C-alpha cells in the first residue's frame, strides 16, 4: 500500500537544558529512494550552546547521520539505519556527553525505527497510544513494522514524552492531523521551563488517493447576491483612523508637474491611485499585526490552561469507563475533573471544550457521583386532614407511614402507594407521647409511664423500668428499647397482644456507650446513629464494623437513619448538609440527594418498591424520586 506522509515538528526553546532539532529528507534519485526511502530524525543533547552554535552543532550531527545512512554502505536499509544511529551516537557522545537520536525510515511499505540515548517512538492507532521503542542513555534499540492508513508515528526525545501526560498527548492526536496536534501541544510545551532538549516530529500515514478538482462556479456580477456589510474589527478601525491621520497630516504637499503627453486630469488621478494603494497596504499591515498580536495572546492564554483542561477531559472519560468496574475510582476521577473544570470557569476561561466538558459533567453527575439535585414534590399535606397539624416524628411499617404530632396529640397514617390518609389516634389516647413506633397495623407510643399501644383502644404494654431517656422501635412483633443511661439494648419479645419480660439483647460481656444515640432502625441487625455523627451496626448482640466510606463531604451532624429488611440500602438524613445520603449496608457510599427543602426535614421513611424517599417537614410530607436503583 502506498502512503502519503504528512509531518509536523515541535521543539522547545534552546537554553541551559540543551537543544533539539528535527530532520526530514527524501532522496531525489529514484534508486536511492527505493533502497533507503524517506528519513525522519529527531536529535537532541543536554549540552548548552547559544543561538547559531546550537544550530551549527545540530546540522553537523544530522549531516553525519545523513552521510552514514545515505552514503555508500551496502546492505539492507534496516541494518544500515541501525549502524548509522549507533555510530553517530558513539561519535558525538564522546565529545558532547549525551546524545539522543530517534530515526525512522519508510522504505516501500515498511517502517524501520531506531532510537538511542533515551529517545522514544510511539504509535497512535485506533484511538490507542502505545510506545514502540523506549531507549536508555546507554543503548540503541530498533524495531520494524507495517503501518496502516491513519496511523500516527511520534518520534520524540525523553523530555518530550516526560513533559506531556499520556492523556494530553492522546487528546492532541485524536484529529489525526500532525499540524493541529503540534498547534495544541506547543502552548503546553512552551509554558514549561527547561525544554531545550525537547523535540518531536509527528507523522501521519495517509493512503494515496487521486486528486479531484472541484470546478469553480462563476457568478455574474449582476446575479451575485448582496452581502451584509461586515462590521470592522477594532484593529481595522484603528488602522483606518491611522491612515486618515497619516494622509491628512503627515504626507507633505507636493507639486505636480505635467510631463509632455500627459493631461492635467491624468496626473491627479495617478496620484490618487498611488495614495489609495499605499493606504490599502498600510491597512493590511496594521490588520495583520493586530491579528498576530491577538493570535499570540490566545496562544499564551491557552498555554496557561490547556494541559489542565486536557487532563480534566481525560479524567472524565476515564471515570465513565470505570463507572461499573471500579465505582470508587470513577468517583475520584470524576470529582477531580469537576474540580478542575469549576476552577477554570472561575478563572473566566472561555473555551468551547470547557463548555462541553461542563455540560457532560452536569449530565453524568448522578450516574458517576450519585449526586442528585432534587426538588421534592408534595406527597401529602397533613394539615388538610387535621387543621394545624405539625409532625415531629415518623414511623413506618409495611405500606403505612405514621406521623406523630406531639403538641397536637394526634397520629396520622398515610398509605405509601395510594396516599390514603386518616387519623390513627387522637388526644384522648396520645397524652404526653414522647416517641413513636409501629409494626404492621400496630402503633406504640413512649410515655412517661412506659410504652402504650394506641388505636381502637389504648393499653399499657410495658411499664417503665428504666432511668433517663430511651428510644423505642418495633420490629418483627418485638419491641426494642435503647437505654441511653444504662447503655443497654432491651428486647421485649412479642407474645400475641402482650410482651414478655425484657431481655438484654447485647451479647454477654459486650460494653458500648449508647448515651449519645439519637436514632435507631432495624432490619434484623440494629443501626444506631449518635449525636456525634457516629454510625454503629450490631448483629446478634455484637458490634460489627460499620464506617461510611466514600461520602463527600463526610457526614458530620446526621439527624435520622432509616432502613428495613425490604430495603437494599441505608438512608441517612442530614439537615445541615441539606441532603439524604444513601449507603450500602456495609457502609459504602451509593448516592446522595440534595435540596434546600431537605434542610427543613424532621424525619424520613423510604419505599424502594414505590421508588420514593418521603421526608417530614412539619405539616407536610414531601417525596423524592429514587434515581440510584
Explain what you see.
Helices cover 30% and strands 32% of the residues. With 629 residues, it is α+β, with helices and mostly antiparallel strands. The radius of gyration is 40 Å and the shape is elongated. The chain folds into 3 domains: 3-207, Phosphatase 2c, domain 1 (4-Layer Sandwich), CATH 3.60.40; 299-369, no CATH class; 377-625, Neuraminidase (6 Propeller). It is built from 11 helices and 37 strands. The strands form 9 sheets. It has a 5-stranded antiparallel β-sheet with strand order 1-10-9-6-7. A 5-stranded antiparallel β-sheet has the order 2-3-4-5-8. A hairpin with a 6-residue loop joins strand 31 and strand 32. Helix 5 packs antiparallel against helix 6, helix 6 crosses helix 8 and helix 9 (327-346) runs antiparallel to helix 10. 35% of the residues are buried.
Quick structural summary:
The chain is of the alpha+beta class and 629 residues long.
Layout of helices and strands:
Elements: E1 3-11, E2 19-25, H1 30-36, E3 38-45, H2 51-70, H3 77-96, E4 100-107, E5 110-116, E6 120-125, E7 128-134, E8 140-145, E9 152-156, H4 158-163, H5 166-173, H6 178-190, E10 199-207, H7 234-250, H8 266-322, H9 327-346, H10 352-369, E11 371-373, E12 377-381, E13 393-397, E14 400-405, E15 410-415, E16 421-425, H11 427-430, E17 435-439, E18 442-447, E19 450-454, E20 459-463, E21 470-475, E22 478-483, E23 488-492, E24 494-495, E25 498-499, E26 503-504, E27 517-522, E28 526-530, E29 535-539, E30 542-544, E31 560-562, E32 569-574, E33 579-584, E34 589-594, E35 603-607, E36 612-617, E37 620-625
Parallel strand pairs: 11-34
Antiparallel strand pairs: 1-10, 2-3, 3-4, 4-5, 5-8, 6-7, 6-9, 9-10, 12-37, 13-14, 14-15, 15-16, 17-18, 18-19, 19-20, 21-22, 22-23, 23-26, 24-25, 27-28, 28-29, 29-30, 31-32, 32-33, 33-34, 35-36, 36-37
Helix pairs in contact: 2-3, 5-6, 6-8, 7-8, 8-9, 8-10, 9-10
Amino acid at each position: 500500500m502506498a502512503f502519503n506522509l504528512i509531518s509536523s515538528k515541535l521543539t522547545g526553546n534552546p537554553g541551559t537544558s540543551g537543544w533539539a532539532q528535527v530532520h526530514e529528507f527524501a532522496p531525489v534519485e529514484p534508486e536511492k529512494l527505493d533502497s533507503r526511502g524517506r528519513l525522519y530524525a529527531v536529535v537532541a543533547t543536554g549540552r548548552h550552546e547559544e543561538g547559531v552554535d546550537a544550530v551549527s552543532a545540530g546540522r553537523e550531527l544530522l549531516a553525519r547521520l545523513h552521510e552514514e545512512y545515505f552514503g555508500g554502505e551496502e546492505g539492507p536499509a534496516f541494518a544500515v539505519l541501525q549502524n548509522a544511529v549507533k555510530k553517530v551516537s558513539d561519535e558525538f557522545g564522546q565529545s558532547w556527553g549525551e546524545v539522543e537520536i530517534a530515526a525512522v525510515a519508510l522504505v516501500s511499505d515498511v517502517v524501520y525505527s531506531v532510537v538511542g540515548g533515551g529517545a522514544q517512538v510511539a504509535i497512535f492507532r485506533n484511538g490507542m497510544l502505545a510506545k514502540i521503542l523506549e531507549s536508555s542513555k546507554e543503548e540503541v534499540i530498533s524495531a520494524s513494522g507495517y503501518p496502516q492508513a491513519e496511523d500516527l508515528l511520534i518520534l520524540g526525545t525523553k523530555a518530550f514524552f516526560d513533559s506531556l501526560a499520556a492523556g494530553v498527548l492522546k487528546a492532541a492526536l485524536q484529529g489525526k492531523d500532525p499540524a493541529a496536534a503540534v498547534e495544541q501541544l506547543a502552548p503546553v510545551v512552551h509554558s514549561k521551563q527547561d525544554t531545550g532538549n525537547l523535540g518531536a516530529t509527528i507523522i501521519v500515514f495517509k493512503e494515496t488517493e487521486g486528486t479531484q478538482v472541484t470546478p469553480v462556479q462563476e457568478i455574474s456580477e449582476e446575479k451575485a447576491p448582496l452581502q451584509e456589510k461586515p462590521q470592522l474589527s477594532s484593529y481595522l478601525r484603528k488602522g483606518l483612523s491611522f491612515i486618515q491621520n497619516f494622509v491628512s497630516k503627515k504626507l507633505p504637499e507636493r507639486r505636480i508637474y505635467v510631463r509632455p503627453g500627459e493631461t492635467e486630469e491624468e496626473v491627479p488621478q495617478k496620484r490618487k491611485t498611488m495614495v489609495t494603494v499605499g493606504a490599502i497596504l498600510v491597512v493590511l499591515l496594521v490588520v495583520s499585526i493586530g491579528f498576530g498580536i491577538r493570535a499570540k495572546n490566545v496562544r499564551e492564554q491557552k498555554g496557561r490552561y490547556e494541559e489542565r483542561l486536557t487532563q480534566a477531559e481525560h479524567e472524565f472519560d476515564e471515570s465513565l469507563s470505570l463507572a461499573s468496574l471500579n465505582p470508587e475510582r470513577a468517583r475520584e476521577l470524576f470529582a477531580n475533573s469537576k474540580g478542575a473544570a469549576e476552577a477554570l470557569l472561575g478563572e473566566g476561561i472561555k473555551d468551547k471544550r470547557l463548555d462541553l466538558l461542563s455540560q457532560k459533567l452536569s449530565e453524568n453527575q448522578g450516574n458517576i457521583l450519585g449526586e442528585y439535585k432534587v426538588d421534592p414534590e408534595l406527597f401529602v399535606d397533613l394539615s388538610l386532614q387535621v387543621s394545624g397539624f405539625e409532625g415531629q416524628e415518623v414511623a413506618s411499617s409495611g405500606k403505612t407511614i405514621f406521623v406523630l404530632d406531639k403538641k397536637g396529640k394526634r397520629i396520622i397514617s398515610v398509605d405509601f402507594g395510594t396516599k390514603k390518609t386518616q387519623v390513627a389516634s387522637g388526644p384522648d389516647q396520645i397524652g404526653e407521647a414522647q416517641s413513636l413506633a409501629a409494626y404492621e397495623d400496630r402503633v406504640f407510643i413512649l410515655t412517661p409511664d412506659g410504652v402504650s399501644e394506641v388505636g381502637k383502644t389504648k393499653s399499657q404494654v410495658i411499664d417503665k423500668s428504666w432511668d433517663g431517656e430511651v428510644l423505642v422501635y418495633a420490629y418483627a412483633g418485638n419491641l426494642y428499647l435503647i437505654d441511653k443511661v444504662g447503655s443497654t439494648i432491651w428486647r421485649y419479645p412479642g407474645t400475641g397482644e402482650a410482651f414478655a419480660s425484657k431481655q438484654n439483647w447485647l451479647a454477654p460481656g459486650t460494653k458500648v456507650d449508647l448515651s449519645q444515640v439519637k436514632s435507631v432502625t432495624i432490619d434484623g441487625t440494629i443501626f444506631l446513629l449518635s449525636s456525634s455523627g457516629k454510625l454503629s451496626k450490631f448483629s446478634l448482640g455484637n458490634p460489627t464494623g460499620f464506617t461510611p466510606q466514600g461520602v463527600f463531604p463526610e457526614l458530620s451532624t446526621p439527624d435520622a437513619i432509616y432502613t428495613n429488611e425490604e430495603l437494599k440500602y441505608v438512608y441517612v438524613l442530614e439537615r445541615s448538609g441539606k441532603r439524604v445520603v444513601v449507603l450500602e449496608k456495609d457502609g459504602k457510599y451509593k448516592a446522595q440527594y440534595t435540596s434546600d427543602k431537605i434542610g427543613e426535614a424532621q424525619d424520613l421513611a423510604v419505599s424502594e418498591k414505590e421508588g420514593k424517599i418521603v421526608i417530614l417537614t412539619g405539616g407536610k410530607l414531601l417525596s423524592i424520586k429514587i434515581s440510584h436503583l
